[in-house]
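Example 3.2
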Amino acid sequence: MTPSTEAVLSVRDLSVAFADPRGGAPVHAVRGLSFDLARGEVLGLVGESGSGKSATGLAVLGLHDPRTTTVTGSIRLAGRELVGAGESVLREVRGGRVALVFQDALTSLSPFHDVGAQLAEMYRLHHPGAGRAETRRRAVAMLDRVGIPAARAGDHPHRFSGGMRQRVMIAMALMNDPDVLIADEPTTALDARVQRQVLDLLGELQREHGTAVLLVSHDLGVVAGTTDRTLVLRDGRQVESAPTAELLAAPRQPYTRALVGAALTADTVPGTPLATVDEPSPSFTFAPRAAAAPDRPLVEVEELAVHFPGRRRPTGRRGEPVRAVEGVSLRIAPGETLGLVGESGSGKSTTSRVLAGLQPVTAGRVRYDGIDVTAPDRALRRRLAREIQLVFQDPYASLNPRRTVAQTLDTPLRLHTALGPAERRERSAELLEQVGLAAGHLDRYPHEFSGGQRQRIGIARALAPEPRLIIADEPVSALDVSVRAQVLNLLMELRERLGVAFLFVSHDLAVVRHFCDRVAVMHGGRLVESADRDRLFAAPHTDYTRELLAAAH
């Protein structure tokens, strides 16, 4: 559907400021933002974390707490002013005229009610005269429209995959045929194939209903293939706005050029340092990497199987066990990076948890440095805890907010080294400097750092006991494009300098292509293909791998 010239949403001089709980000056999240959104148009809102993207979307819906947030300017929905509107007006708008699709569908859906009931409730809120049967039929029809069978309407959210839960969120958002749909990072946590399915579905429904879409994203690849126009934000201010193809091909502003330059594309040479926004171009260079072939691999997995008990039936008996991993065999050489890719539920994280010693095995053998690690042995577990470290996906959730950086780094040093208190502090300062932070940051708390800085602290914690293997589980998927470039540059530099091996679990094939030496592809708990990076991306052997690669473009 061709966008109309009629603006369904008009924002003028919008400012959003948050009060400082300590009595300081307000924090300005959005400053003087103006834009129009036409019927049938898809507008991309991009920028780094903290640029004001989500704050803008929440302001449209009036979801900021008026006790702590000041919103000024004008937001007009089909000519109706929303800034300063009463709660009754905003309730009518929310979910009726303007709908929101969140990034994390699991936390956005109630775990206590089936999805059909949740969709029916959304319809009933805006159609109080509708009967129970009518609302249920509407809910089932909308689930069918987004590709979920009617029989699944009675299921609770935990019984759906990540992609299917996001489809439920889209169905809920469209229950009342809204004029505007705000999609806030709707595909960040999804693998390439499911991401493509969700974006295609959004586009199809948007064209069919003529809905205007405000797509909030830090993924320039998603924006490039989805939006008509793109607006770039930085520090709450508009930097640039233009038709998407024009903006990405020839950005006018230095900040936009830096964002585009930090993105991974098909032309990016694997293993080369990436450009970033706030840091100078890396001065280090990497020699071409070749897969090592040692006499004995660092990690060797043979016919690994992990089964979980089946669901308990009303009779008390359990169903068939869930075969999360079945017959997986792989190797990681010292200093090598193995990328483990596949869709949600393919068994990637379960396999990585086995290697970390966090998940018992049902069958098979796992050797680390030639030693069988599946046998219960406390001394061996202590060695593994020192030599195998993890870097987690979410830098906000993986650090204790009540502990300073010094306390966070001190724990692995105290557990795995014989250093005294003064030596541990000195080593902690060295670790911070190693990951590009200042020693003076030791006594700060996590909330005083940006997302990229927190991920650097997580990497420093993993490096503290001098591991030989780091398991990185989606370490950059939650980061915006520039911070992702900073963290990838750091990981590549540490790998070259320290010789650490990596198991790199990811659904982002562009990141895997850039960072990994070899790639293993999982599907349905099984390993379907494993090869050197260049060979796998140039000539995949299996249909499933070809589908994954096609979905990523």
